[in-house]
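Continuing the series of single-chain predictions for the mutant panel. This is the parent chain; the variants come on the following pages.
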Amino acid sequence: MSAAGIVGGIGTFAEVAAAGYKVADEVGLWDKFSRLLRRKKPRILILGASGAGKTQFVESICNPLSLLVHERTAATRRYTVPIQKRLFRMVDTPGQERELRRAAIREATKNPPEGILNIVCSGYHEAAEAGSAQAVPATGSAVAKPDYLKTRQQAEINLLSEWVPNLDPGNTKWLVTVVNKADLWWPDEGSKIKNFYQAGLYASKLDDFRKKNRVLPYCSVVKPFYDFRTSGRFGDEARVRLRAHLLQTLIDLTES
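Parent structure:
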């Protein structure tokens, strides 16, 4: 009996299945479908300090021109995120809840992620415990007070002590340090900020992860710092370009 005859309704379920397999096998569909089923979703751990914009980062991956600004979250969140033709499983750890964050890191030691997205923002954390009075100068052209930026950069460095000694770089394929809030930088700051995370003090604290680290500027949403002025030279076009570059980097890292 032909496959067409069986599927026409006169065969048993087993005959239909066997015929369907034969037809699919003849045209190579079964092999393609089997590979699709076996294809794992890369698991990515998202780390970063409170106020760096981790949850907004995930939102911006799903929506290229997201205008939603997330409030701080106090729980680990898991997402399945489509990027081109791949699905990624992203684990977004809480920035301000230390014990919950550490629990997520302990879980990652048992089930190592393929990659780590380390979200930083060069000190531009809108943390509730600080407030705009401590962060934004009353006068002048600076976006934020230098001492505030330095303090928050140190908070990012301190956070490394929670995961760098506990995660095995041999079990993680790649690390991308995403320097968020690029819309706040002045034109001459970009190379200095990248160097801080790629080769400077911050990079020195990455230990063996430093060999796998690459640094990418990013902007989840164009938004003034504490609702005050920014550099004024960054818009949605630049934001879309940075997003496209980061997404392609994730695909390249996963498929390499």
